[in-house]
Amino acid sequence: MKALLLNILYIFLLVIYSPILIYSALFYGKYRAGFKEKFFGRVIKRSKVVKGTGGKEYVVWFHAVSVGEVRVLRPLLRMIREQHPDWCCVISTTSRTGMDVAVQNYGNDWKLFYCPIDFSWSVEKAMRRLQPDLLVLTEQEFWPNLIDAAKRHGVKIAVINARFSEMGYKRYLWIRSFIGAMLRKIDAIAVQSETYAGWFHRLGALADAIHITGSMKFDGVVFDRDNSETTRLRRLAGILPEDVVFVAGSTQSPEEMIAVECYNNLKLDFPNLRLIIVPRHAERFEEVSRLLESMSAHWERRSLLEDKENGSVSKDDKIEIIENQIVGGSSNKSVCPRILLVDKMGELGAWWGMAAIAFVGGSFGTRGGQNMIEPAAYGAAVCFGSNTKNFRDIVELLLRADGARVVHDKRELELFIRNCLESEQFANSLGTNAQNLVKEQLGATEKTLTILKDLLNPENTSSGKLRP
């Protein structure tokens, strides 16, 4: 009966949102791929996953909804590949951009597919075909029918890097009995902090199932600014040693406009300043490009850099590049545009690697902030807006360590950038404090792997229970 009611609810929601879904599919190509997997559970079969070595092999299904969750898995999957050759991992995702990043990072090592929508028939079919030994959900992917199907098939279930937004937690309190019944079916919940542990416990999760591991996002970061990808992009963008790079990453409207206005107000006093804008969503690339044109900015596109370097830019694109260079004004003698729009997904981590000053987007609007660990790990002078509820624990750690600043509006952002440009000591102190904090938080991935091993080999349990 519960599965039937959920199916009816999902169908109702699909009908309500169908105009948006159809529009996104037609104009942005979203939701088209993986139709059979999503609606009918036609995922890869177990026989095509196992290696057939003759020994005991485990099929572990990792589900990560989109780009952020897919990238969180990197250090864990790397550790599994090195330590557990008997684990046959498969990775599902929901979004097209998530799949693109998964293919880029894991396509050579693991099988990938789109996760079935949480209809009872689709998840049941997926379980029969894949027959996993362990289902691993990332962060806050709680799908009732999927969890029920896993339980019916005797599959162990874990949630890793688990968290709730504060708003999500408050909403779940209204349906605590339903959420609690679902959470009690999960064998292990590896949470990011004591706060989240308390929330899960109050919602009904079993205390013995809750483990406090810290955030795996700390383990997946890069500290070396001279890593190969950052070095390659630095060369492509023509960034010189004397340039001071301000990166505004994971931005949403109106953060791009604010960043450009700050840059325009500072560029005459600080001619070495360069601005790199990385919007959060690919569908906003054209919107941001029109914004830059309307603001008469001296800019270029990331997507043209390789063609420009190879001399294969089209005639129209050459005209656009020349116009963008001229628009910057005669006072700007630089051949290379001083503003770069990164219109390519999956590269933000490498662009953070060249940031002396970093603004983490999604924090001036309603989104609730984006991941600020990557620029902190590189030792950038990090700032973000006041709306960072999705990363409240990380923000508290950074502020307590004097490793970041909160800027409430354009005036405060511009003042922060100016302070960093005028005082190298101020910027370096923030960056050093942030980087040291990230190093202190490492280790969540190893704890998480221990928990997963215990689920697959309960007779060899080695991890203690960390209760709220």
How would you portray this structure in words?
By secondary structure, the protein is α/β, with parallel strands linked by helices. It has two domains: 25-219 and 442-458, Rossmann fold; 228-305 and 313-440, 3-Layer(aba) Sandwich (Rossmann fold). It contains 21 helices and 14 strands. Strand 12 (357-360), helix 17 and strand 13 form a beta-alpha-beta unit. The protein starts with a helix and ends in a 12-residue tail after the last helix.
Tell me the layout of helices and strands.
Elements (H helix, E strand, L loop, with lengths): L1 H27 L6 H6 L17 E6 L3 H6 L1 H10 L3 E7 L2 H11 L4 E4 L5 H11 L3 E5 L5 H9 L3 E7 L3 H8 L2 H8 L4 E4 L2 H10 L6 E3 L15 H10 L6 E8 L3 H12 L6 E7 L5 H10 L4 E3 L3 H6 L4 H13 L11 E3 L6 H5 L4 E4 L12 H6 L2 E4 L7 H9 L4 E2 L3 H13 L1 H17 L3 H13 L12
Parallel strand pairs: 1-2, 1-4, 2-3, 4-5, 5-6, 6-7, 8-9, 8-12, 9-11, 10-11, 12-13, 13-14
Helix pairs in contact: 4-21, 6-7, 12-19, 19-20
